Amino acid sequence: MSWAFLRDLLSGVNKYSTGIGRIWVAVVFLFRLLVYVAAAENIWKHEHDEFECNIKQPGCENVCFDHFFPVSHIRLWALQLIMVSTPSLLVVFHVAYRENREKHHNQKFYKNPGKIDGGLLCTYLTSLILKTGLEIFFLVLFYKLYNGFKIPHLVKCDLKPCPNTVDCYISKPTEKMIFLYFLVATSCLCIVLNLSELSYLIFKYSLKCYLRRHVKKQR
To answer: What is the pLDDT of residue 11?
Structure first.
């Protein structure tokens, strides 16, 4: 999978972000994207081939694997990474709209098209809410699909066409568990960063509005 587009998107939106937003970009790029590409993807690369059951009944192993792993961990993380980064496009598109509007009318409508204020502030806040919501959605989805954040060493399966209850073994469960905890922890960290940036921008804007009203009253 090529991650060039996601990399360019993160680097592009970075210049419009606040300090907290830049930390979020660094966490996504360094601790999620690079870890995914460099290590996690290889660990789950042959998860189906290395899933073994203590019976060779045709179809039994495939049915058991599909039951316990309805969606591949690694594909779900890839989808999560893409989805939580996509709302950043809203900010990029809004800034591009501002710049194109100025070029089209040959006038200066904004002091700085990339400054987070006015309509761009609403767009930025919307992107933060979407990113936070998607992070939480994927964590809950993962928890529901796999009955918690854990990788068991042994699973028991009694689904047809298995003739009886069979034992199935997952390869490298400890190593997978470590990366699972790491990726869940970075996801939670991103949620905290998004909420912190959201609170910071709302507080900053509210304080700015209050000071404006206060100055008007004094005048």
So the answer is: 58
